[in-house]
Amino acid sequence: MSESAPSRRREPIRNPWIWIGLVVIVLVGIPWYLPPGTLYPLLFGLPVWTLVAVASSVGVCGFLHWALSKHWNLVEDVEEAAASGASKDGSESWTT
Amino acid sequence: MDNLTFGGWAGISVLLGFAVLMLLIGYFSGRGQPNMRHNMKSYYLAGGNLGVVVLFFTLYATQYSGNTVIGYAPQAYRVGFPWWQSVTFFTVVMAGYMLFAPRLYAVAKKHSFITPTDWVRHRFSSPAVALLATVLMLWGLASYLLEQLIAMGQAIAGLTGDTVPYQIGVLVFVCVMLIYSWMGGMRAVALTDVMQGIALLVGIVALLVGGFVLAGGSWSETTQYLVEERPDAVAVPPLEDSVNWFSMILLVAIGIAMYPHAIQRIYSARSERTLKRSLKRMVWMPLITAGAVFCVGMLSTQIFPGLSDGESEQLVGRLTNAVAGINPVFYVVMLLFVGGIVAAIVSTSDSALLSFSSLVSKDLYARYARREVGEHRQVIIGKGVGAAVVFALLLLAWNPPATLVEIFVLKIELLVQLAPAFILGLYWRRLASGPVFWGMAAGAALASMMTLTGMETVYGVHGGLIGLALNLVICVVGSLLVRQSPSEAKAGESVAEVV
Question: Membrane-crossing residues (chain B) (predicted)?
Answer without folding.
Answer: 6-30, 42-63, 83-106, 127-146, 166-185, 197-219, 245-262, 283-304, 324-346, 380-398, 404-428, 435-455, 461-482
